[in-house]
Amino acid sequence: MILSHQKQFSKAVREFERLIRHFHQAEQEDRRIDLVEREVLGLLLRIGFELLESYIARCGDGDEGETLPQDDHVVRRLESLRNRRYVSIFGEHRFERCVYARREGQKIERVPVDERLGLPEREFSYVLQDWLQRFCIKESFDEACTSLETLLGLRVSVRSAEQMNQHVAQQAEAFRLQQPPPNPNEEQELLVYANDCKGVPMRRPLEERIRRGPRRVKGEKANKKQMACVGAAYSVAPFVRTPDDILEEVFRKESAANRPKPQNKRMWGEMTRLHEGEPLSGKTLVFAQQALDLHARDPQRTKTVICLMDGEKALRVEQHEWLPRAIGVLDIWHVLERLWLVAHCFHREGSKDAAKFVEDRLRALLEGKVGYVIGYFRRLLASGANRLSAAQRRTINAAVIYFENNRHYMKYDEYLAAGYPIGSGVAEGACRHVVKDRLELTGMRWTVRGAQSVLHLRAIYINDDWETFQSCYIKTEQTRLYGKAAA
After folding, report:
1. What H or E segment, with its residue span, contains residue 457?
2. For residues 130 and 168, what is the distance between their CA atoms, to the nearest angstrom?
3. Bridge partners for 108 per DSSP
4. What share of the chain has pLDDT > 70, as a percent?
């Protein structure tokens, strides 16, 4: 085996000499620099491949005698060598090694070569998993595999990329629970928790596809969606404003220059899924994580806690269960959507009259006059009974019900005076970054497990925890496989 190791190393040396000759030839021929760049990369990958082959060969076949101790028993060397495939960023490596078990046909318990090299559980190297999954959480699995092939000339199947994604994501929840709270010196007075939901297009179960056939029946939608709940947490300094400040921002796009920036932002994304045969709500999972985050950030209960959401009743129920001391605030942007819908029942879309209608009603709400706006809409319903269509009446009535149900969370005059945020832009951005920009790409359909894996890893990446997570993932797997932490 020493000879094999030297032989492989010699190959790497020859490849390096070839690289030097190739570079000198490029100088003589005055080649364009990007062509030289591509050629050099290809040769460097070849050198890397031969060096890894040499590194593997130096371990030999792992024969450490007929028997080896294993916990409270002894394992024996099996008669035949077993093949191992290892795919690195440089290419595919195959080698044979000795394995140990209690007897032939039983579970293999020791593989000295694997232990010495610290091989991963699956055939893909940790570096390759890291690089490919960085692509997978940003673009489709097929595009991710194509990107990797373009860079390294190495093709990984889409199925392998999906399975890798789900395997790596298995450690995401444990990693999240181990994360320390932010440095208290970096935290601000207000702790804000924002939540929103976003639909994820799902694959139809196989039984349903077989039963219904390839064509959809009349009225059947092309795909079913299941809601993913996305939560965000951050701290921010109080920022006192007036109704005029908000109107300037909404209608004149004049953002305040001295607006404080959110600190230590964290995001989560959860699907509703089965746990021990029972459905576990994604909303419950997100709020439970926010409750843990709140306890870690504010153990002495000294900070003001804000919970920003839309008017969905299920979210408020979860808030009262998990964040009972939080001050509930109805997101002003969802309120604006309702105002625009009502305005367009009376004024043309894009008209100045529609904008004036919304601005006047928004000013009233910001001044704490929720009852006045509700009464105004009811008078519109009564006075316009003959000239409003059924659809318009439903729109206005829905706005009345929405404001009535949420008026407890619409004390905007008090919120502004206290410096509380009233818009959940962070949650909206989280829905876009965590869900929409990846899970709603054209033509995508997901299983619950597949969507959840991408959500977990994408949240880790967006939270700037990717490098830490990769180290934790490798350390945990190495400890489980070989009883030792990775170096």
Report:
1. helix 448-462
2. 9
3. 101
4. 92
Is 453's pLDDT higher than 90? yes
φ/ψ region of 277 (left if φ > 0, alpha if ψ in -120 to 50, else beta) reads left
At residue 2, the pLDDT reads 47
Q: Which residues on neighbouring strands pair with residue 91, listed in sequence order?
A: 88
Which residue in this structure is represented by tokens 């207000």?
Answer: 190
Instruction: Count other C-beta atoms under 10 Å from residue 122's C-beta.
Output: 17
Query: Would you state the torsion angle of the CA atoms of residues 22, 24, 25, 29, taken in this order, to the nearest 10 degrees?
Result: 140
The strand pairing partners of 227, in sequence order, are 199
CB-based burial, 180-194: b 16+ in 10 Å, e otherwise = ebbeeeebbebbbbb
Alpha carbon 378 to its chain's center: 43
- What one-character DSSP code corresponds to residue 80? S
**Runs of H (alpha helix) within 326-436:** 332-343, 352-366, 370-383, 390-406, 412-418, 425-430
Question: Which residues, in sequence order, are CB contacts of 160 under 8 Å at separation 6+?
Answer: 124
Q: Which of 279, 289, 283 is nearest to 310 (CA)?
A: 283
Q: What is the Cα–Cα distance from 340 to 396, expressed in whole angstroms?
A: 10
Length in residues, the chain: 487
d(CA 487, CA 477): 12
